[in-house]
Amino acid sequence: MYRFKSTRTFVIIFVITILWFHNNILHVFRTDHSEQSENTIRANHRLKILDIENALKAGNDGGGGGNGASSAAGSTGNGGGEHGRLGTPAFINLPEASPLTPDEIEEITKEIRLLNAEQKIHNLEKFGPVNENTYVLVIQVHSRVEYLSLLVESLSRMQNIENSLIIFSHDLYLPGLNEAIRNIDFVRIMQIFYPYSIQLNPNRFPGQSPDDCPRDINPTKAKEIKCRNADHPDVHGHYREARYTQTKHHWWWKANFVFGKLDVLHNYTGVIAFLEEDHYVTPDFLWMLNLMETAMMRNLCHGCNLLSLGTYLKTWNIRSSHSRAVVTNWISSKHNMAISFNKTLWEKLRTCAPTFCEYDDYNWDWSLLQVSYTCLKAQLDVLYAKAPRIFHIGDCGVHHKKKTCDPKKAAQAVEKGVKQYSSLLFPDNLTVELRRGKKMRLKKGNGGWGDIRDRQLCMSFVE
């Protein structure tokens, strides 16, 4: 009887295993094959943007969609190859950063100094040198590797990606992540490293010093115990937290480094798009960027000086607004995705460094809004894509505290919309609308930036 039961159990397990194999493994094979075919079709219809002299129609209601992507042309990109693709072990199996020993900190600090000086561009032998017609995208990277892998996947699907330079700016030095990024083969890439990171200063400023005041200690009590920054609480009476201040420091350092220190961009006059690791782009991102930059260059956007490829919407409005862009006053909470500007504007922002660095707000975008309203001669006016070409899929991070995070689900939702409305991408024309909004009232910042050391470090980046 015992032997019979064991045999029957074995048979049941065997049958279940066969059924699972059939429903899952074979399904995966079928899915991979269909996705490969789909990518091949898309790649064969990619068209390099050579001239959009007649592709811009400002102020009119015309404009179809899809012709730019379906023109008869050979493939100009490989769609990304296998390196850096969604779900590859190189990205999703990376170990979390662990505390470094003093010797490791010293070694990595030297390595970062060398890499930032070397400014090596990978894949130049494949795509040629950077020139004035090259698109430049800068991605701020922290630690959310799964989000970054999804962004890289979406970048690999962009038309004309092979005519781009992607600069990854890191505040963590992770050998495994560095290797994964350097294995990306569908675009020119460069890595730069924020040299004042918490990782390299775990027990001292700009990290969190042991004698720093606790965030919520009363300022009076702080002076009694004589903690280091007792005299410098923020506008809300709190003390600095390094994990929050680092983001603003990194953004400001990165912009200064890209515009002022990168040799390859010394004479570059085009716009540079700034993205973050938890963004996700559509295939016609660069197509729209090109249309919008052309509108700005030809002064067809009512004096705008800033571009944004997306805004925050509950529902993607691609059907009604696929070929529309809007000019309005720039608002940090609405127009901070893929913010894009050129060196001319940067030089103006740079002169406002004291305003940016002294404003008591740990957010770079709210600090930039303060610059717009109180320092610049003319406020920032943005031309933004009414139907976003970039999406924020980061439901976990500094400002998001969800218990469960599913970046892949968010990316799949975007891809579903892209496939459903693919005929509306790559519009033939761009209609520019003027819509002045109300000027926001800035009272006091969100805080987190009261420490004089943060302000001094911030100012040092422009010296």
From TrEMBL:
Where does the UniProt annotation locate this protein?
A: Golgi apparatus membrane
Residues in the signal sequence: none
Broad class of the protein's primary localization: Golgi
The EC class name is: transferase
**Which cofactor does the UniProt annotation name?**
Mn(2+)
Protein's UniProt keywords contain Membrane: yes
What's its EC? 2.4.1.143
User: Region Disordered: what ranges?
Assistant: 61-85
Q: In which pathway does it act?
A: Protein modification; protein glycosylation
UniProt KW keywords: Disulfide bond, Glycoprotein, Glycosyltransferase, Golgi apparatus, Manganese, Membrane, Metal-binding, Signal-anchor, Transferase, Transmembrane, Transmembrane helix
The membrane topology noted for this protein in its Swiss-Prot or TrEMBL record is:
Single-pass type II membrane protein
Keyword Membrane part of the UniProt annotation: yes
What chemistry does it catalyse, as a reaction equation? Answer: an N(4)-{beta-D-GlcNAc-(1->2)-alpha-D-Man-(1->3)-[alpha-D-Man-(1->6)]-beta-D-Man-(1->4)-beta-D-GlcNAc-(1->4)-beta-D-GlcNAc}-L-asparaginyl-[protein] + UDP-N-acetyl-alpha-D-glucosamine = N(4)-{beta-D-GlcNAc-(1->2)-alpha-D-Man-(1->3)-[beta-D-GlcNAc-(1->2)-alpha-D-Man-(1->6)]-beta-D-Man-(1->4)-beta-D-GlcNAc-(1->4)-beta-D-GlcNAc}-L-asparaginyl-[protein] + UDP + H(+)
Q: Which family does it belong to?
A: Belongs to the glycosyltransferase 16 (GT16) protein family.
Q: What is this protein called?
A: Alpha-1,6-mannosyl-glycoprotein 2-beta-N-acetylglucosaminyltransferase
